[in-house]
Design goal:
Shape: elongated
Oligomer: single chain
Order of helices and strands: HHH
Number of domains: 1
Distance between the termini: 19 Å
Largest sheet: none
Strand content: under 5%
Helix content: over 70%
Length: 84
């Protein structure tokens, strides 16, 4: 079970780090933008221009998967606590 804990924590932390790095790269690019359209907004246009769509959505997926793994582990421990 410790391996699953480690894997969940690894996915969660790596997702958060990747999410932060993507936002940092986008924040560095925004001052150099020439223009943007209102419906998608500055963030979406900057993400498209810097081609960071895949890392952005991958970071969100990693955060969700890591959270689910950690939540299911805790839920199983909680259920086992009340079964005994």
């Amino acid at each position: 079970m410790k391996r699953l804990d480690f894997l969940g924590a690894l996915f969660f932390i790596s997702g958060i780090l990747l999410y932060g790095i993507v936002h940092l790269a986008i924040a560095n690019y925004v001052p150099n933008m020439g223009g943007w359209s209102t419906p998608p907004g500055k963030f979406a246009i900057a993400r498209d221009d810097t081609m960071l769509n895949v890392p952005y959505f991958l970071s969100i997926i990693l955060i969700i998967v890591g959270s689910i793994i950690l939540f299911l582990k805790e839920l199983k421990a909680f259920i086992n606590k009340f079964d005994n």
